[in-house]
């Protein structure tokens, strides 16, 4: 019988989603601008999945005269290639400096310092997820009015620049970090959809000794790996891990662990591996009087195989089984990102529930003279 009261269910929802590549300004963090108000304004953001991968500075007379910004994007083979370069100000400085970002490196801190007079950008300081702190520009004579960025997810997609022949002000744009993520599912799998099936575990055969308690331990582990591909337009990282058991202790228990972690980058395609492990365990004890009870009842008289003392061999053959259902079932719903100002970004999603549904372990036992040759001892 399939005992619903002993079911234990866990699902990891494999999402597949696509959102518009339009770059709505409210979707960006862009508050770190420092410097003067001269020059012409530039706001350059790449919304096709590219990220800022390199910034080069030209310096002269204690401030920044020019900037070159490079964007890169991951191709189908996982290689990052330059997608766009833009220059601001002039390149007639007497020194150059640059910062290169690793494809997986996020910006965890950004501070922009102005010069005193004229009001220009003097220094830009980056802190990154790879424990780097990089200062570009001139450190001496920094004026008040620095700007600290709200870096959001740390994924840089653009720059804010005012420039003429010099860099008057500088800031960056990052993908915003959502305050919460809602998944509204419209369709759910049912037990009928899962179609539980009876699964046999590996049989065990052990000897029953005179005046000794006999213990049989059974364990079965099944592993399954789901490989999914994701194509997201938001910077996001999700982690999931759960484990547990269900059943009746000392009679039969089942347990499983589902663990998965997926990283999503703006416009990149990622491969997600979800490993599911089902562990079915039980311990069965037979009393020390079992052998004597069988002998007194004459149930050993027909046994032909004997032990070293000439006593008939008595073995117990235990065959365990349980019900299992794989929940590789489709669903549809809506994914919603909610931000601090309560603005929302939502889009339809579809995917597959993956998990394991298992019942308590059932066993059948049989006493035999000789254990089968293909059974574990």
Give the structure's gist in a few sentences.
It contains two helices and 25 strands.
Class inferred from helices and paired strands: mainly beta
User: What's the story with the biggest beta sheet?
Assistant: 8 strands, antiparallel
Query: Radius of gyration in whole Å, from Cα?
Result: 33 Å
Determine the N-to-C terminus distance.
28 Å
Helix content percent band: under 10%
What is the overall pLDDT average?
Answer: 73
Q: What's the tally of helices?
A: 2
Taken together, the total number of domains comes to 2
Order of helices and strands: EEEEEEEEEEEEEEEHEEEEEEHEEEE
Strand content: over 45%
Shape: elongated
- Unreliable segments (pLDDT under 50, ≥5 consecutive)? 1-22, 229-270
Query: How many β strands by DSSP?
Result: 25
């Amino acid at each position: 019988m399939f005992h619903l009261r002993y079911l234990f269910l866990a699902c990891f929802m494999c999402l597949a989603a696509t959102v518009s590549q339009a770059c709505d300004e409210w979707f960006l963090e862009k508050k770190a601008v420092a410097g003067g108000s001269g020059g012409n304004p530039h706001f350059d953001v790449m919304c096709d999945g590219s990220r800022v991968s390199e910034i080069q500075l030209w310096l002269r007379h204690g401030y920044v005269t020019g900037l070159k910004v490079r964007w890169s994007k991951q191709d189908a083979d996982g290689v990052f290639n330059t997608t766009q370069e833009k220059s601001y100000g002039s390149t007639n400085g007497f020194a150059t400096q640059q910062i290169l970002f690793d494809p997986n490196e996020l910006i965890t801190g950004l501070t922009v310092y102005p010069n005193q007079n004229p009001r220009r950008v003097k220094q830009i300081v980056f802190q990154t997820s790879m424990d780097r702190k990089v200062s570009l520009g001139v450190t001496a004579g920094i004026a008040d009015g620095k700007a600290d960025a709200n870096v959001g997810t740390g994924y840089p997609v653009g720059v804010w620049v005012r420039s003429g022949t010099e860099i008057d002000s500088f800031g960056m744009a990052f993908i915003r970090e959502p305050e919460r993520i809602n998944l509204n599912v419209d369709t759910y799998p049912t037990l009928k959809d899962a179609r539980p099936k009876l699964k046999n575990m590996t049989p065990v055969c052990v000897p029953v000794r005179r005046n000794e308690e006999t213990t049989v331990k059974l364990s079965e582990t099944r592993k399954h790996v789901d490989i999914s591909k994701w194509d997201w337009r938001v910077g996001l990282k999700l982690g999931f891990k759960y484990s547990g058991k269900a059943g009746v202790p000392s009679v039969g228990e089942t347990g499983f662990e589902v663990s998965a972690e997926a990283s999503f980058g703006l416009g990149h395609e990622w491969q997600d591996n979800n490993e599911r492990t089902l562990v079915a365990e039980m311990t069965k004890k037979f009393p020390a009087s079992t052998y004597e009870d069988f002998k007194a009842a004459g149930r050993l008289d027909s046994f032909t195989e004997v032990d070293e003392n000439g006593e008939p061999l008595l073995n117990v053959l235990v065959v365990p089984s349980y019900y299992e259902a794989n929940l590789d079932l489709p669903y549809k719903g809506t994914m919603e990102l909610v931000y601090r100002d309560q603005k929302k970004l939502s889009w339809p999603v579809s995917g597959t529930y993956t998990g394991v549904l298992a019942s308590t372990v059932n066993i059948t036992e049989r006493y035999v003279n000789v254990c089968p040759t293909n059974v574990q001892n």
